[in-house]
Amino acid sequence: MFLIYCPYCEEERAEEEFHASGEAHIVRPTDPESLSDEAWGDYVFFRKNPRGNHHELWQHTTGCRKFFYMTRDTATYEIKEIYKVGEQPKVATAPAVPNKYDQFSSEQAVKK
Amino acid sequence: MSQPNRIQGNNASAQSRVDVSKPITFSFNNKPYTGYAGDTIASALLANDVDVVGRSFKYGRPRGIVAAGAEEPNAILQLGKTEATQVPNIRATQQLIYEGLECHSTNGWPSTERDVMGVVGKLFGRFMPPGFYYKTFMAPSKLWMTYEKMIRKGAGLGRSPKAVDPDTYETINQHADVLVVGGGPAGITAALNAARTGARVILADEQNEFGGNLLSQTDLLDGAPAQDWIDNSIDELATADNVTLLINATVNGYHDHNFLTIHERCTDQSFDLAPEGEIRQRMHRVRAKQVILATGAHERPLVFGNNDIPGCMLASAVSTYINRYNVVPGKKLLLMTSNDNAYNTAFDWHNSGRLVRAIIDTRPAAGKTVVKKATDAGIEIIYSSAIVQAQGNTCISNAMVAPLDETGEKLSGSVKQYDCDTIATSSGWNPAVHLSCHTGGRPTWREDIQGFVPDNFNKNMIATGAGNGLYPLTEILQDAASAGAFAANACGFNATKTSYAKAAVEDVAPSMPIFHIPHFKPTSRAPKQFVDFQLDVTAAGIELAVQEGFESIEHVKRYTALGFGTDQGKLSNINGMAIAAKKLGKTIPETGTTVFRPNYTPVTFGAISGRNVNEFFDIERYSALHTWHVENGAEFEDVGQWKRPWYFPKGEESMHEAVNRECLATRNGVGIIDASTLGKIDIQGPDAREFLNRVYTNAWSKLPVGRCRYGLMCGEDGMVFDDGVTSCISDNHFIMTTTSGGAAHVFNWLEIWHQTEWPELEVYFNSVTDQWATLSISGPKARLLLGELTDIDLNPDTFKFMDLREGVVAGVPARVFRISFTGEQSYEINVQANYALAVWEKLFEHGAKYDITPYGTETMHVLRAEKGFIIVGQDTDGSMTPYDLDMGWAVSPAKEFSFLGKRSLAREDTVKENRKQLVGLKTTDAKTVAPEGSQIVLDPNQKIPMTMVGHVTSSYYSAVLERSIAMAVIKGGLDKMGDKVYMPQADGTTIEAEICSPVFYDPKGERQNVK
Ligand SMILES: [Zn+2]
Question: GO:BP terms for this protein (chain A) (predicted)?
Fold first, then answer.
């Protein structure tokens, strides 16, 4: 069970208080109607699956209910950094593990 | 005869921990035995010369006690005096006896004592060759049933109690700077050095007292008996208020981020049932900054022919029984070793006054210290030799010894017979690396000690002592002192020096890497050489696995079941790997590593669940009216965590009769339902409207104050996941309602979008589900009834359908929504939850003359289905768009902001022809109610497999329509109105129905809009 530092409560709390909400920094396209089906599909359905550092979105569900970001090593479960919404990570992600669906995600959905 | 193997008089060990002044009577397999306070079941049985404690799993061979600790594979018992106190999987070596204790062998069929090994062994051997599990699971599954019955009967495997456990268990959260696992010489030394810095220390040991291996050996510390040092050290730790000492407490699980679980058995060592007011077992959930593993090591037995005959034991276990319990397990000992350390067992045996036949050393020479001691005691040492085979039936009668060549792989001379009744063996020690593997560590092989040690996977964990491959006691103590100080300093304390006790330095010869003693015959033809006693895995079985092509040790283990027992292969894993490696022509590290998972030893469900049992097992939510429902005979239904009234039977009514009555009462008079479980979210802020525009499919910009609107919520994939009515209280204040089961998810959904995507919108959410109770009255008499109790003007020209008014109802402030889930004229009265019962009772008082009828969820479902109103999650399944539900009227594509899910509604897949669409169904036979979930086909005569075009989502008997009604999703259903479809049933019949609109009753909505 992880020990997680909530950057809003400024305390370390047990994982039971938190909820993982998937990959971080999935930015909603500003003009969805201008995207092809494929590009929109990339945004809605496709997520990275790296072995190593991964940027994740978490919520302090039974605490302050704030969302925040975490860079976590998916192999060792070590938490490398915690940062607030609106901030950028300092630790880069590991390369995604190639999967059989990669051929469908050639088009970049997210333009930051 | 009483305790023939108890050492008495001058030969008795002075350090023994049993109290001979306190005899204790217990029973094993229904026979009474006597031991002393401080005895384990194992030591007491050995004292009473009990050789056989169980039968082997597969071959049914008699088995005796092998070890003295957690690694024991054979003496696995079922404990308990009554049905309610039954505990399976108790190791006789770890359970103390107490007055009246009752235990049984788990592997006992047909009988532990009677020798039917011939019959059973042959029978099982034929049924269960190596690879049995693998092959069985690949075979037709119906055969497994036959096999399983035989295996369970034969193996016992322990059983769970059939009566409710009367004991109390609990969970405790602990925080520590340094958790020290294991209270032997290393653990105590580490704890002392850490605690002296002021660090918060927990020291936990699985045994009933601290001391670890020192209790089994005769070492002196600082020139005095080790027990003096143990007593002084524990005294110091016990009086320090920064130290928690736990005995009978096994650190069983090592989880992420230094979270460890300790299973403390508080009363198990003394009582069958915990005394009144006491906790039986406690689960400590410890978060530690630093963890020191001082877990010690398990001795490895040597593998040779018939090495499972009772009387074959670990050398260190024999020493433990002699020194700690004053029990010598036999009369004539033959010791086989590949190292100096095990010589001590021969000396202990000799000092107990019994005969050591000889020491068989696989090496050509031994260290000076032990050789001198052996010579002084007159014990014969036979070098470069090994025991190739034991002989005997339920106990050893003699052993065959033969010379070994220098590689240890071949015999190099003729056999000599030695008569003996006990064979003790040692091939060295396996550090107890188990906990270090639980979070992903992979132990590394050390050639010099022929064992695996913990790796450096976890930066906040230190392994020390024998658990890290250190063996001479002097080195263990020195290293453990440093580990304690280092760990404390890592937590911010300031240790500048270490201190530890001094032990004797001995001249030690290197041990020999040998695991499997060769036989004259090839392994496959030799008498069985057991590697895993608990699961009857032999050296021949492992060699066969390799021969059949399994190269990875993980595959070999699964093929042979090596290490799959409740002992997790504590004794067998390394020997098994060594045999596989030799057959593969590889080294042990090339073959793989050994990995263990939680838990280290079996943990009871009681300790895991703690206080979360009975009514605390799962959360139950009750509305403010729950007691009224109970008092008025409601049958309840679980809706998420909520207990909701399902229906209110009167007298002997069946559910069907009750629901028909409730439906008609609502359609003809007035019905009332407790709708408090509806999710309610209070939304405020200047951007609340804009926010609603983004998360709902329809438009909210023009909803006037005092009006309500139904909305659909879609995920970004365009699929409906919730619905509900949201009302405008003021320009920047809305109340959103959600489905009862979806409230938490919707709330989370609003937050994630607001916080991560649209933080610029000024809007605030507050869950108010529990604060407001919702009392919904429905039916032609609803307005008359409410009119008697409120100051709100109910004039239907001004208080119209989908309007909201605030006022006083039954004397308390209320919000009244004229919205309807029944299709009747309805008022949803919302009051503060603590006023709800008073208002509810007033409604009944005034409603009696209108025959006001309470109804539950079942009637609600029928009434809404008569109107074709969907229930998200029942009529939808995460693959339905608003258009699939024929609810395009609730979608506003023209909204400025591209609402959540909008783009997906234009995806190729969501606009394709022939999607499943929601329709109504009328069965041809009006009385037949099609089962929900029935599959729908267009051609009932098609051969199987038939083409399925959809399924029934809701189906009821409608009392008001006097016929069955159903809702279904059918491919292209909206274009098939009037078509016949068919629902083949499991009993071979087929139900015929016609596709229709799902609005069965009052299609124009005149009843709910009534003026
Ligand atoms: Zn927080």
Answer: tetrahydrofolate metabolic process
